[in-house]
Every structure is written in structure tokens, then in C-alpha cells.
Amino acid sequence: MKFLHLVVHAALGVLLATRIPDRGLNLPPTQGTTRDGAFFPGLLQYEYHPDQVALATARAGFSSLRLAVNVETAHDTQALQRHKAYIDAAGGRGVICMFDTSLKAGTSWPRTGRVTGKVNEVARAWRSIHSMFGSYGDHVLYELFNEPWGYQSNASDYVADMMSVIRLAELPANRVILAGLYGSADVQSVARAGWHGYLAYHFYSFWLPEGQKTRRNFSLKIQEALAGLSSRVFITEFGVGLDRLNTDIDQDELKQDVVRHTDNETATSDWQNERSSTTTLRSICDKYPDNKWCRRRARGAALMQDPKLGGGCSCADGWHGSSCQH
After folding, report:
1. How far apart are CA 283 and CA 5, in angstroms?
2. Which of 174, 209, 240 is at the close of a domain?
3. In this structure, are 145 and 264 located in the same domain?
């Protein structure tokens, strides 16, 4: 998934500096599926090497990263230093996003979708994050809570909780991004509830029903959603295919994310812990030879044995060691 930033200027109530537009990349945790791993309880696993991140962002023209945290990760100094290394590798710009945590281990659901009752806990987590990234100024922004589904249409309660987190964590408001309601789709209600800072908007092809997924309708949908606000909106998730707008991004991930899948069912935990010790990337690619990931690496260097992966990892294009899996 990508995130985009529209040019920002000063907004009422919160002084927002003029920013260089970001062309950002969501860098998911290396656990579970690409879309679900960030919601797992416990310390989030990130196994990329900073050199990998630098190479990937430079080749694709990205200027910023969006990195997931949860409360546990926010209090782990090593994890925050790893995030810092990733942001430095990408040029020193990024968004740190607090993800909701599943109530069940190894899965992404159920979740409460709100911070009510745990505002102090979330504030302490953000205080810890700010202690690591405070020196970056507005080059690193704080997306306070991803997709606040649990508030439903109650923007007032949502903004009140977020303002409490900002106050208790002593965060500079001009570095805070508040997500739109529901799946970060309704930024208008958040603005009407009194938030004058940055906003996060998510866009997915399923925002429109079948039969209406045309280029014009998608354009109108975004323009309506961001009317009067686009100058302070980050599109922090853009979940459509880059070759066509009507791609089912969730199904597409299941088919392509073979490192964590061997079929079209969603994995509920890290594939290495689910599969037998004889499962390798080579054996998965033998089963799915048409997978884009497999085809690309089949043209690369010879497979390199990696004990952590059970053997068989293509190290083409500079993807080495245990990070080959990604």
C-alpha cells in the first residue's frame, strides 16, 4: 500500500508549516499477512535491513515511510531504534502510526477500534515514541490511531479522546495526524468536531459498489470526501492496484504474498510458525509458479540456503539473509 500527501499550508487552530509533498510507502510488519500483521498483540516484528529499505525506496522514488507501532512496541527501545533506522534509510521523513491491537493472540480480530478506557496507556506509549523521534521535527509525523472504527459516527468522543492523548503525551499538535472515522474514510466529521490539524484518509476500491467503479466515480468520491480539506490531508493508505482501479487489493495480497501464504486463505500468524519445517520458498513457488513474486525471482540469482527460512530463498536484487523472505 502507498500513502500520499497533498500539499499542506496553515490551517485554523493548529499552525501547519508548508511541507514538501511526501510520496510514501507503508512498510508492514513481517508477521501474519501484509494487511493483518500490524494488528497482532505483542511486540511487532520487523525484519527488514535498513539497506534494503534504502534500496527499495530509492528505486521506486519514495521519499517517506509509514511505520506501525502498538503500545508494546512503543515501549521497546530496540524496536523504536529499528524504526528510526528505517526512516533514516528512507531520507529522514516518515509517519509513525499507532495500530489497534487484537484481543486474541496471533490474529487481527476482534478489536475495539477505540482508545476509550485506555487513554492514559496510549498517551504513555506516544510519550515514549516522541522521546525517540522528537528531534526530527515535522519530518516525522504521528498518526495517533489507525482506523477508529469503534467510535462509529461519534466524532466528538473520538476527537476528545485524541486531544487527551495529545495533552497527556505532550505532543506538538502540528505533528499529529488524526484519522477519519470508520476506516479513515470520513475526515469531514473529524474536522467539524473541532480538529484543525492534519487528517488521514484511506482509499480502497471497495468504497464504491460493483458496477460503479469507474475512473470518474473514483475521482468524484475522493473530491467529495476531501472537499475543503485536501490541503491538510495525508492519504496514508491507497489500497488499489497501480495498474487498474478496480483491483480487489485484499484478494490480490492473498495471491501474491506467498512468503506468508500457501493458498488463498488468510494466515493468522507468521507462516514460518504455521508450516512444516520442510516448507521453503522454493516449494511454495513450485506450487504457485505464476505468482509475480516467484516469477521475478526465478529470473534472478540462484537460490541461497537460509537456515531460518528452511532453505531456498532467492537473493536476486540485493535481498539477502533472513530478509530474503520479504
Report:
1. 40
2. 240
3. no
